[in-house]
Amino acid sequence: MSMKTSTRTVNGIVIVDLSGRITLGEGSVLLRDLVRDLVTKGQRKILLNLGDVTYIDSSGIGELVSAFTTVRNQGGELKLLNLTKKVHDLLQITKLYTVFDVKDDEAAAVAAFK
Amino acid sequence: MTANRVSYTLDSSLQSVNMAEETAQLIAAKVGFDEDNCLKISMAVREAAVNAVLHGNAYDPKKKMTVAFENTGQALVITVTDEGKGLDINGVPDPTTPENLLKQSGRGIFLMRSFMDQVRVRLLEPGTEVTMIKNVSGPAVSHKEASK
């Protein structure tokens, strides 16, 4: 299943609901374009909801890192929400779990933005 | 091709990467690996296939990727070969060190090594051959047969 996204705003925080696969090709490009578009439009507080992401490869991990640094370099914050076990394990293995601010409750995640 | 070995020669495309991944998942399940290990094996194959198609063959339609699966009884031995310029494995930095942690790429071989019991890279002329071994009974099992 290719990746799908939908975007909503809660208390000024842009929440991007992602589903499907974030892999080389369609998924990773879609994520990259989406985050760059949000940043271009002035959004600096972004929460990526990965609860329905079924699969992610190294390219997808790279896009998450790129999204994180893109937003951070603009003085913003990007957090991750609702990691599946697979994605959680991947971030642990790659030692990225401590780089990202990972939340498992949407309201708490929204409240955690500065 | 023997009964325990199957090999596919594929175009240098993303479709081939997906096909290699899906085939790995099916074969790993048939060999008897549990769901978690089937996922690890298919992810390792995907990473090797991405390297072959993207970094090796650079999507060149004239160049092929070969993916071979062999069940030795003790291990599943998977070989992914490309016809590219060759991968210098010593030139691939550890993606988990602080200076590399926020780099966008460079995690493929690391993930292969994390998910498989053995990963060997051999330079061909031209191309790269990546051999990945997953032991059927865990890391302690000998795989002399698979190493031949």
Give the helix/strand layout.
The complex is a heterodimer of chains A (114) and B (148).
Chain A lengths: L3 E7 L2 E10 L3 H15 L4 E12 L1 H16 L3 E5 L3 H9 L7 E3 L2 H7 L2
Parallel strand pairs in A: 2-3, 3-4, 4-5
Antiparallel strand pairs in A: 1-2
Helix pairs in contact in A: 1-2
Chain B lengths: L4 E7 L2 H18 L3 H22 L7 E8 L3 E7 L26 H8 L2 E6 L4 E8 L8 H4 L1
Antiparallel strand pairs in B: 1-2, 2-3, 3-5, 4-5
What's the quick description here?
The complex is a heterodimer of chains A (114) and B (148). With 114 residues, chain A is an alpha/beta fold.
How would you describe this structure to a colleague?
The complex is a heterodimer of chains A (114) and B (148). With 114 residues, chain A is α/β, with parallel strands linked by helices. Chain A has a single domain, classed as Transcription Regulator spoIIAA, CATH 3.30.750.24. Helices cover 41% and strands 32% of the residues of chain A. Chain A is built from four helices and five strands, in the order E-E-H-E-H-E-H-E-H. Chain A has a five-stranded mixed beta sheet, with helices on both faces. In chain A, helix 1 links the parallel strand 2 and strand 3. In chain A, helix 1 packs parallel to helix 2. The C terminus of chain B is likely disordered. By secondary structure, chain B is α+β, with helices and mostly antiparallel strands. In chain B, helix 1 packs antiparallel against helix 2 and helix 2 packs antiparallel against helix 3. Chain B has a single domain, classed as Histidine kinase-like ATPase, C-terminal domain (Heat Shock Protein 90, 2-Layer Sandwich). Helices cover 35% and strands 24% of the residues of chain B. Chain B has a five-stranded antiparallel beta sheet with strand order 1-2-3-5-4, with helices on one face. The relative contact order of chain B is 0.19.
